[in-house]
Amino acid sequence: MKKVDYLIVGGGPTGIGAALRLQERGADWRLIEADDHFGGLSASFRDEQGFTWDLGGHVQFSHYDTFDRYMQLALGRDGWISHQRESWVWIRRRFIPYPFQNNLHRLDPEDRWACVEGLLEAYQKSLNKDQKMPAPANFEEWMLATFGRGITEIFMHPYNFKVWAWPPHTMDYGWIGERVSVPALGGVLKSICMNRDEVSWGPNKLFQFPGHGGTGAIWNALGRMLDPDRVTMGDAVAQISTGDKSLRTQNGTKCEYRHLISTMPLNHLIRCAPGVTEEKLADGLVYSATHVVGVGMAGAPPEHLKTKCWMYFPENNSPYY
To answer: How far is residue 313's CA from residue 321's CA, in Å, rounded to a whole number?
Structure first.
């Protein structure tokens, strides 16, 4: 029986981050990872052809000093490639710079007016002091209140339904933060009148990627900085007993803890910790899944595509987003 102050389940970015902070502070910790490698859903692998693939689309950007410091610890200053993010939306058989709502001048006149009309209506409602508008009840209502019906129906609703695979009216909107460009009416109208593109918007307009090894190289490097005597790899959690604060792995190891930091999916956590809540609740949790398809291309890109590093596909004529 082992005893530890902090027991961390999962060796992905979150678990590694917790372990590094606890290690820096001299705390008593231990980390358990089911796989034989670090990274979790941010790992990378090398195929038989010699290509390195990420498990998903990952880029590194933040406004968090500790995270940035760990990135430099992982790969140093010379281990990164920096990219200027230039994003485009393929819609109505043309490319429109992202954010869509800031580049409406590229639309046909009818669509352009539908978007502007919706924005004007939303803006007028926000100014009506005699009729206080209730707070949006869900993500769809937030889109309509913020962008109006035109932008919502042409771009925001179909794109977000593709991304999350759940209807926007079933979702909250507190997660948005800096992820969505909220249009200023003056800027939208200026873009239309000046016929001028706005590109490279957003908190990740300049992002970095490892020069070698894919995203997984970051977490492998940081994982190697952890005290190996406190890390157990290749052993999954079998059961968690919150009554006596103990955890048992599939290999039979038992560990007592004061604090448990779990990064496993919530439905698995519920099933591993009987008695915490009803197990049937695990089946009621909703989530979305993504199929990631990597395509390798040889040769130089055509001139009209070579600066486009990020493309959105909101329409239903393609299965990808």
So the answer is: 5
* Cα–Cα distance, 157 to 61 (Å, whole number): 26
Nearest-10 Cα torsion for 159, 163, 168, 173: -110
- Measured distance CA(25)–CA(15) in Å, rounded: 16
Output the pTM of the full model: 0.85
Backbone angles phi, psi at 7, to 5 degrees: -110, 125
The Cα 300–Cα 37 span in angstroms is 35
Cα radius of gyration (the chain) = 24
φ/ψ (deg, to 5) at 163: -65, -50
| CA–CA dist 231, 36 (Å, integer) | 11
Instruction: Quote helix, strand, coil % in the chain, to nearest 5.
Output: 35, 20, 45
Summarised one tens digit per residue, pLDDT across range 246-301 is 999 999 999 999 999 999 998 899 989 988 888 788 888 888 888 888 887 778 98
Angle at 202 between CA 198 and CA 206, to 5 degrees: 100
